[in-house]
TrEMBL record:
Keywords: Membrane, Transmembrane, Transmembrane helix. It comes from the Bacteria. The chain crosses the membrane at residues 46-71, 83-103, 115-132, 138-161, 173-199, 205-228, 249-272, 284-303, 315-333, 339-363, 375-396, 402-422. This is CP family cyanate transporter-like MFS transporter. InterPro entries: MFS (IPR011701), MFS_Cyanate_Porter (IPR052524), MFS_trans_sf (IPR036259). SUPFAM superfamilies: MFS general substrate transporter (SSF103473). It holds the Pfam family MFS_1.
Amino acid sequence: MTAPKSSQDPALTGLDVEDRRSMLVDAEIDDVPAAEPTRVGSRRSLAYLGVCLVLIGLNLRTVFSSFSAVLPEVTADAGLPGWAVVVLTTVPVTLLGVFAPIAPVLARRFGAERVLLGAMAVLTAGLLLRPLEAGGAGHLPALLAGTAACGAAISLCNVLLPGVVKRDFPDRLGLMGGLYTTAICASAALGAGFTYPVYAATGEWTAALQVWALPAGVVLLLFLPLAIRQRHGRHQAARGGVNVWRSAVAWQVTLFMVLQAMMSFSVFAWLAPILRERGVDGGTAGVIVSVSILLQMLGSLFAPALATRFRDQRAINTVVALMTGGGFALSIFGPLELVWLWTGLLGLGQGSLTAVALTMIMVRTRDGHTAAHLSGMMQGVGYGVGSTGTLMVGQLHQATGSFAAAGLLFLAVGSLAAVFGYRAGRNRFIG
């Protein structure tokens, strides 16, 4: 059952229904026969499903921002070597790319709802496992295993959740698409803003990390009855269509996504430690990062509508890429008295940059099948290679003892993103 059709959706500001439909890429679009909507028995059950999907989105970024909020405390108390800090900030992003191609395969075999349920179970277990101590081996084994589990689970949700929203709420895409994307941004903001206060209240970084298993576990229990009663038939993958891997346009869009991901996840992993190294206390650093992430919502709300108003997207892609790289560098080099300005610029730029990179899926393809293939390419390569951003920041800090080199790095990354954003923004189609 789906919601009744409406001629006007008040949440569709700037983008019409077809635009929203295209931006929510369906990972199951190649299934033969086509995947059926989630079986619900009433409007109330459909609304319950919508709440569950939004709550899943609200748990997809806390693993990144919560760890960085107490990184100095974890490093000192657990005695983490430098390589371990770099790995712990890099692995979850890398796994977003590694597991992205697996998600449609699992959904074809078990159904998207049950894969989402399994992913939430793995995410909850990973969040519980992260802070545990493994006897004489210390905290490191559990941190590594728990972080890897979280990265794999989030990757599956990243790929499947937009398609389920699109499939089950075809006439409410403005509302559901907005709630879903807002929930993901809010997830990062909550992790950044509340982790350090929990540490300050308890005196234990383990409690500050483990607390995020609670909302994930609640969503798991809420979604359980809906997911387990779904029936799933046999599906195969349709063959044919445009080969995006051989398209120059697809590679330009993907490289734009790579550079965007390098900056985006480096902010989640390192902005709080950067501010704390500059002398900002842990609580204030968490609030600054949280506000910067909230400003991302503003950028992500308006940037796609603005981008689709132009004949091409060269100008907006270039501007938001330079805003992000410049905001990141100024957060490191700029006067500390203006840190709210620098991080605000970074937040607006980063939210807009992420949104316009994803908008390229819509404006550079002619059909849903090509869009799904481009999305898979962008996520697999984008997150897999984009994780080198967090890796390089960690290695540069370890080698030089400061974040100054990282500031120069992201001036370069922002400039390259502007170049590839300009090329990806030209008015052309894949195939």
